[in-house]
């Protein structure tokens, strides 16, 4: 073990262009609670802390322009694990009703023959997101025979 011990992800911070729009997406559609929000004095930059069951999961920072660029170094995609395949399908229905952009149609397997899988979509700024389960997607198709589904959307 490393001298710094075991590390776990505490939360993820995302730059967004419109905090109100992103709060509606991550809150109303994905079910995160607003744990706190504020504004940096003088700059107009706003932020919000989002979580579930009182635990911080995401911070949203309204301090950017443009859209997510998958061709630049940085975040590839953000993946959430759901409790069951039924929860993944419920998320898919909520996202479809909201007009979200999906990378694949319906639930897909992580790779050919995998029990794990989920949905792959984009937030309002184009950030790539995934909601998946470790098992329950055994019957789902795989978009690629040779590469991980989450790697190239």
Summarize the structure in words.
The mean pLDDT is 92. This protein has 2 helices and 9 strands. The protein starts with 11 loop residues before the first strand and ends in a 20-residue tail after the last strand. Strands 5, 6, 7, 8 and 9 form a 5-stranded mixed sheet that branches. It is an alpha+beta fold and 153 residues long.
Question: In brief, what are we looking at here?
Answer:
By secondary structure, this protein is α+β, with helices and mostly antiparallel strands.
Key features of this structure:
153 residues, 5-stranded mixed β-sheet, 9 strands, 31% strand, 4-stranded mixed β-sheet
How are the secondary structure elements laid out?
Blueprint: E1 12-16, H1 19-29, E2 33-39, E3 46-52, E4 55-62, E5 78-81, H2 85-98, E6 101-102, E7 108-109, E8 117-122, E9 128-133
Parallel strand pairs: 1-4, 5-9
Antiparallel strand pairs: 2-3, 3-4, 6-8, 7-8, 8-9
Return the string of H and E elements.
EHEEEEHEEEE
Number of helices: 2
Q: Low-confidence parts, pLDDT < 50 over ≥5 residues?
A: none
CA-CA gap between termini = 34 Å
Mean pLDDT score: 92
Shape estimate: globular
The fraction of residues assigned to DSSP E strands is 25-35%
What class, by secondary structure content? alpha+beta
Alpha carbon gyration radius: 17 Å
Could you give the count of β-strands?
Answer: 9
User: Percent helix among the residues?
Assistant: 10-25%
Main sheet summary = 5 strands, mixed
């Amino acid at each position: 073990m490393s001298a710094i011990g075991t590390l776990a992800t505490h939360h993820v911070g995302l730059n967004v262009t419109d905090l109100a729009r992103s709060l509606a997406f991550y809150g109303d559609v994905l079910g995160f609670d607003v744990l706190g929000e504020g504004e940096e004095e003088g700059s107009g930059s706003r932020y919000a802390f989002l979580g579930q069951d009182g635990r911080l999961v995401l911070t949203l920072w309204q301090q950017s322009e443009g859209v997510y660029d998958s061709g630049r170094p940085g975040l590839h995609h953000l993946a959430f694990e759901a409790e069951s395949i039924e929860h993944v399908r419920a998320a898919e229905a909520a996202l479809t009703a909201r007009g979200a952009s999906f990378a694949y149609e319906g639930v897909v397997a992580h790779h050919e023959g995998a029990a794990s899988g989920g949905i792959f979509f984009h937030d309002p700024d184009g950030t790539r997101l995934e909601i998946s389960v470790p098992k329950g997607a055994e019957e789902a198709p795989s978009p690629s025979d040779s590469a991980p589904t989450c790697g190239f959307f």
